[in-house]
Q: What sequence folds into this?
């Protein structure tokens, strides 16, 4: 089945803000015609872009319809419920089970069982690795596969807890049973896409909530039901940072370290091959989300991380009854190398010059484009991932040049003022129109920035500026007589109650009079042409009618009668 990636862009909502580019830890986003598109081969599906997008343009693939299709085909589907449900829903486990069964699931089991099986195996049969990185987090696995292939030998040979759990379900109930994971993780969808024979579908807590609302299921009003399998306790530690290490304990004197958050994980992987061989085996628990899965991209953000962690710990204080369950946990994997091409310095500088970066001092490295430096941005432009139009400072300078050219060349007088009636910008024609005796001042201070408007125009005209600033009206027009001049004034709001502009047209000037005469002459010619066309049409119609009548008269007489 061809599936769209777990994260995609709703192009009509994308606002060209590049916030997703700024926050993407691997710059796995390509700009196409101003729209930010996910690069599937580079994305690790951490969900950072979804969380930060201010326009809700980054969307998560909804897979509920795929589950409903399984139901409609008569498939028996068992839900693998992530352990973070404890902190996610304010309902008992029994009510959650009943709600899922009402949706159509055959039964519900805790993903934590898979975690428990995995932990027990690692305690009893430690891996023969000096350094071993856990596979519980699919984002971390994706990071290593795509960006640190040289460190792949450090990644555990064990499959993730959710895949262990799905194997356990199929071993217990049969291969004809389908499995669905429900949790806070977007990357589980890609894990499902890669392992459809083990994990059929993965959905998030948000998808589950929307599904329950659509089906009008009120969880709190339901009766309690039991899990279809044993319950787990130790495995429930997995969604908090350090939880996995807590479950395996100090196995064979192994060292255990825990890191959460992508930046922390990257800092470890960047130098992992340079680490001296530890005296004892080292197990590294690596989780992409700060604090663990309880803070996943699709988790409840209303609760504090501390509150979530306490809820998990309280639930895990009880005793497990899943101590003897078994499942296949081993896997062999290959890396998917994501290459980053280095471009010649001349090519980088060539791109920089096209966006106005002529010297090193022009490289502001402001980050407005989403990249850390101008040179990094230039590299992504060369790679076809970024567009030159993303450079904010270049766009601003270009817009300023266009505005300056327009202001400078417009034949009318133009002035822009702020709410304090101080000039922000004006052109020479404005100065010539109202400050003929002091017109040389424009050469001394072009634009007259900061000058008081009342010092440049008659008081009667000043009141019109005060009027539009106070009212916030979009446009106002007035005809004004000042001295021997008749002036047509057009006022327009740029920022409501803050910045307004005024265009002054001297209708008594020869140039304007000439232009008005030409326009009026053109209007007269146009009207005459329309009249001629109308008359021609009428004449044509009348001529045709006359011809028909005359022919009928002629035909009514016999030629022989005339003779």
A:
């Amino acid at each position: 089945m061809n599936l769209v990636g777990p994260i995609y862009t709703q192009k009509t909502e994308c606002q060209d803000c590049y916030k997703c580019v700024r926050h993407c830890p691997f710059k796995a986003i390509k700009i196409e015609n101003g729209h930010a598109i996910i690069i599937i081969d580079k994305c690790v599906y951490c969900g950072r872009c979804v969380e930060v997008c201010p326009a809700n343009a980054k969307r998560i693939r909804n897979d509920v319809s795929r589950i409903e299709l399984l139901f409609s085909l008569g498939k028996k589907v068992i839900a693998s419920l992530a352990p973070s449900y404890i902190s996610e829903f304010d309902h008992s486990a029994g009510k959650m089970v009943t709600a899922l069964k009402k949706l159509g699931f055959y039964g519900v089991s805790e993903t934590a069982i898979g975690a428990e099986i995995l932990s027990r195996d690692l305690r009893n049969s430690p891996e023969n690795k000096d350094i071993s990185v856990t596979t519980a987090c699919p984002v971390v696995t994706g990071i290593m596969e795509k960006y640190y292939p040289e460190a792949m030998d450090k990644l555990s040979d064990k499959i993730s807890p959710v895949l262990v759990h799905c194997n356990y379900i199929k071993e217990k109930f049969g291969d004809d049973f389908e499995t669905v994971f429900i949790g806070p993780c977007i990357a589980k969808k890609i894990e499902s896409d890669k392992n459809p024979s083990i994990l059929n579908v993965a959905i998030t807590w948000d998808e589950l909530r929307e599904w329950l609302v659509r089906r009008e299921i009120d969880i709190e009003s339901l009766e309690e039901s039991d899990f279809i399998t044993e319950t787990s306790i130790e495995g429930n530690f997995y969604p908090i940072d350090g939880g996995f290490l807590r479950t395996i304990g100090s196995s064979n004197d192994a060292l255990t370290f825990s890191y959460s958050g992508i930046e922390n994980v990257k800092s470890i992987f960047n130098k992992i091959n340079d680490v001296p061989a530890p005296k004892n085996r080292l197990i590294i628990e690596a989780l992409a989300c700060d604090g663990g899965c309880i803070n996943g991209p699709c988790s409840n953000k209303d609760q504090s991380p501390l509150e979530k962690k306490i809820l998990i710990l309280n639930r895990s204080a009880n005793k497990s009854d899943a101590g003897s369950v078994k499942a296949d946990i081993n896997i062999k994997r290959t890396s998917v190398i994501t290459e980053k091409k280095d471009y010649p310095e001349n090519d980088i500088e060539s791109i920089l010059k096209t966006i106005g970066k002529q010297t090193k001092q022009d490289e502001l490295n402001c980050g407005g484009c989403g990249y850390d430096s101008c040179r990094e941005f230039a590299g992504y432009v060369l790679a076809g991932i970024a567009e030159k139009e993303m450079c904010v400072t270049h766009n601003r300078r270009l817009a300023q040049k266009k505005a300056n050219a327009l202001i400078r060349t417009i034949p009318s007088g133009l002035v822009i003022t702020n709410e304090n009636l101080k000039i922000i910008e004006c052109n020479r024609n404005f100065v010539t129109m109202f400050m003929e005796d002091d017109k040389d001042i424009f050469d001394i201070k072009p634009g007259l920035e900061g000058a008081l408007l009342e010092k440049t125009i008659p008081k009667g005209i000043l009141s019109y500026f005060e009027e539009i600033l106070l009212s916030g009206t979009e446009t106002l027009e007035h005809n004004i007589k000042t001295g021997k001049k008749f002036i047509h004034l057009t006022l327009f709001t740029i920022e409501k109650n803050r910045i307004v502009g005024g265009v002054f047209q001297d209708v008594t000037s020869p140039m304007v009079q000439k232009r008005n005469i030409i326009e009026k002459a053109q209007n007269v010619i146009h009207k005459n042409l329309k009249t001629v066309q109308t008359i021609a049409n009428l004449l044509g119609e009348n001529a045709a009618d006359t011809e028909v009548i005359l022919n009928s008269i002629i035909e009514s007489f016999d030629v022989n009668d005339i003779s």
About this structure: Confidence is low (pLDDT under 50) at residues 539-550, 556-563. Residues 510-556 form the longest helix (47 residues). The CA atoms of residues 86 and 314 lie 10 Å apart.
